[in-house]
């Protein structure tokens, strides 16, 4: 993309990858990724790295499982996006997610957070959906799920919604890979 070309108004919503259960005395905030989470974060990092427009900024919950997911995703991205950790993504509801996204000037944006906020944010920002993406999102927002939303206007009008153009999960990526090897 040359400097005069406008970056597309894309939002990538990524739920953190699968985390271990809390050990006795451990806070939920401090739960790390487990082996499945590490595997799935790597898989989704490879998926995201193939996109035409890579995120220019990553907004990431400061919870340990989100930070670890972010580090793995970053390792697959060649463009070195800005990363901002935000305690509010752990502590607040989807309205906070939407307001944080509305203030962004760098785009595309990748937001790494938690459910049910991710699912609620995806629904709120998806005034319309592609048939396939909407079908997948109807089943929920699994760990390491990745929604792609295109906003037609400026991010300040994000509340009007955009179009959910894609929704990918580790499960459907593994299914595709299995079919490709047949």
Question: What's a quick, concise take on this entry?
Answer:
With 182 residues, the chain is an alpha/beta fold. The chain contains seven helices and seven strands, in the order βαβαβααβαβαββα.
Could you describe the 3D structure shown?
The chain has one domain (10-20, 27-165): 3-Layer(aba) Sandwich (Rossmann fold). Helix content is 38%, strand content 20%. It contains 7 helices and 7 strands. It has helices at 35-49, 64-76, 88-91, 94-102, 117-125, 131-137, 170-181; strands at 10-15, 57-61, 82-86, 109-113, 126-129, 146-150, 162-168. It has a 7-stranded mixed beta sheet. The longest helix is centred in the first third of the chain and has 15 residues, at 35-49. It is globular.
In DSSP terms, counting alpha (H) and pi (I) runs of 4 or more, how many helices? 7
**What is the N-to-C order of secondary-structure elements (H for helix, E for strand)?**
EHEHEHHEHEHEEH
**What gyration radius follows from the Cα positions, in whole Å?**
16 Å
Work out the strand percent.
15-25%
Supply database-style keywords.
globular; single chain; alpha/beta; 20% strand; 182 residues; seven-stranded mixed beta sheet; 7 helices
């Amino acid at each position: 993309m040359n400097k005069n070309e406008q970056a597309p108004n894309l939002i990538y919503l990524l739920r953190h990858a699968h985390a271990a259960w809390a050990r006795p005395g451990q806070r939920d905030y401090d739960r790390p990724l487990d082996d499945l989470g590490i595997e799935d974060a790597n898989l989704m990092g490879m998926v995201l790295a193939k996109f035409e427009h890579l995120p220019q900024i990553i907004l990431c919950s400061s919870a340990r499982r989100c930070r670890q997911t972010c580090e793995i995703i970053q390792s697959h991205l060649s463009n070195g996006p800005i990363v901002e950790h935000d305690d509010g993504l752990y502590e607040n509801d989807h309205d906070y997610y939407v307001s944080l996204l509305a203030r962004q000037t760098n785009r595309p944006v990748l937001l790494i957070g938690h459910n049910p906020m991710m699912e609620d944010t995806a629904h709120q920002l998806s005034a319309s959906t592609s048939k396939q993406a909407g079908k997948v999102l109807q089943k929920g927002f699994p760990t390491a799920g990745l929604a792609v939303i295109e906003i037609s206007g400026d991010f300040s009008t994000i509340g009007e919604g955009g179009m959910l153009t894609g929704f990918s999960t580790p499960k459907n990526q593994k299914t595709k890979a299995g079919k490709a090897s047949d």
